[in-house]
Amino acid sequence: MAKIKILVVGDPGSIHTARFVSLLQEMGHDIRIFQSEKYYIQDEHLKNITIYVDTITQPRINNNKIIALFPFAHSTNNSIILKVAKFLLLISSISKFGKLNRDRVNDLKNIIKIWKPDIVFSLKMQNDGYTVSEAKQQMKYDFKPKWIHFNWGTDIEFFGKHSRYKNEHLPKIKLVLKLCDYFVADCQRDAQQAIKYGLKGINLGTHLANGGFNLEEIKKIPSLPVNKRKTIIIKGREWNDIGRAFTVLKALDQIPYE
After folding, report:
1. Which of 69, 114, 183, 213 holds its CA 20 to 30 A away from the CA of 88?
2. In angstroms, rounded to a whole number, what is the distance separating the alpha carbons of residues 186 and 213?
């Protein structure tokens, strides 16, 4: 059976992206990642994959191939060139030239035209789904691949409803739901909300957004009975209205020690 070419539009620095991509790789498909943001980092679990980025600012790891699209398509691991790239990124980010010419939507359109993926898979709407929707809207019938959007928990529930963000984001959310061919959510709530906000494509149901876990690796981790555990690990972040890690830490600090 011929390999399916899948372009994953997502953050290569996210463990969720890395685990999701690893599942597709295990199935034998030809996978590449497009970073829709101007920055990038590589998650340590990403291996043997091509990543399209705006500018190369880090050396590649795990046999990954990093292709930068600014100022032209190129790939390198030379430390001097990486330093120059970081400088160019800084200059272009504050210059009129950079803002006008380093358009990630156009970069995505070019990759789709050149590589010709069978499927485009966007992970979360901000900004991955938004970038794909703009590219598809501009390309019209030249957008040949099927587009699957994987909705993450904050995509609709937070950005589509919060008073501070909904005026900007709700029109973009509705455009994604209108243009994607297939839709996947990580919970029933968002599967239903997608229909409410205008989903035109096929709803593929709910699945884990994080791509799952490597059970063989988990088995290697020592485990104690619950009543003997003394360590609490907090998974979270502190960022504007989404991240509330500090709130959790404050709450834990108020719990009496016994």
Report:
1. 114
2. 15
Instruction: State residue 231's pLDDT score.
Output: 84
Instruction: For residue 87, name the pLDDT band (cuts at 50, 70, 90).
Output: low
Asked if 138 contacts 108 with a C-beta cutoff of 8 angstroms, the reply is no
What beta strand segments (E) does 144-230 contain? 146-151, 182-185, 202-206
H and E: helices and strands count for the chain:
10, 8
Question: Which of 147, 160, 154 lies closest to 198, judged by CA?
Answer: 160
pLDDT of residue 100: 35
Q: What is the pLDDT of residues 24-39, one digit of tens each?
A: 998 899 999 999 887 7
CA angle 103, 107, 111 (to 5 degrees): 170
Cα 169 to chain centroid distance, Å, stands at 17
- Domains of the chain in sequence order: 5-206 (3.40.50.2000), 222-253 (no CATH)
